Amino acid sequence: MGEEETGEEYLFKIVVIGDSAVGKSNLLSRFSRDEFDHNSKATIGVEFQTQMVEIDGKEVKAQVWDTAGQERFRAVTSAYYRGAVGALVVYDISRRTTFENVKRWLDELNTHCDTTVARMLVGNKCDLENIREVSVEDGKSLAEEEGLFFIETSALDSTNVYKAFEIVIREIFNNISRKIL
Ligand code: GDP
Ligand code: MG
């Protein structure tokens, strides 16, 4: 009990968007349960996972939402985006089309959320270096153009997964303090 009294608890809703099969659900399960699913079956029904993260002594409950297969029909609902303060826009570095579609996902995000949402462009599956179709430079320059953070991840071998969420959460805190000031 004593510990709980020392700090506030924060709840941040973070959405994960991007084309089907880029690895959104696996980024989420790696982040929240440190698990990877080798079967490509679409995740149906799972709305979000929560994970406690400690940032600079602050306890954050990251509530990370998964499109749960809706994205296959380009039918991600406005309820999905409602209240989001962070977003991971994911593509697959081994499939160029998923990178080309990032702009469509950003457009959708912009129609549902205001510009203060902390955004991270995520090039997932960086373990697939031998069949890479999107260079690191291309990812970086798109991120710069669109004003996003950028990182490459692998949900398979855990590279940068926690870090991606951590950077977004830090930016959410920055946004909060900017609004207060
Ligand atoms: P979603 O449709 O975006 O939720 O994608 P999933 O998480 O279901 O993953 C789609 C497929 O890609 C599955 O077969 C996963 O095993 C695979 N996958 C996901 N992340 C990675 C990764 O980082 N590296 C590799 N090699 N495969 C991945
Ligand atoms: Mg999924």
From TrEMBL:
The keyword Cytoplasm does not apply. Keywords: GTP-binding, Lipoprotein, Membrane, Nucleotide-binding, Prenylation. It is found in: Cell membrane. GO terms for cellular component: plasma membrane. Its main location: membrane. Belongs to the small GTPase superfamily. Rab family. This is Ras-related RABA5b-like. It comes from Olea europaea subsp. europaea. The chain holds residues 1 to 181 of 213 of the full protein.
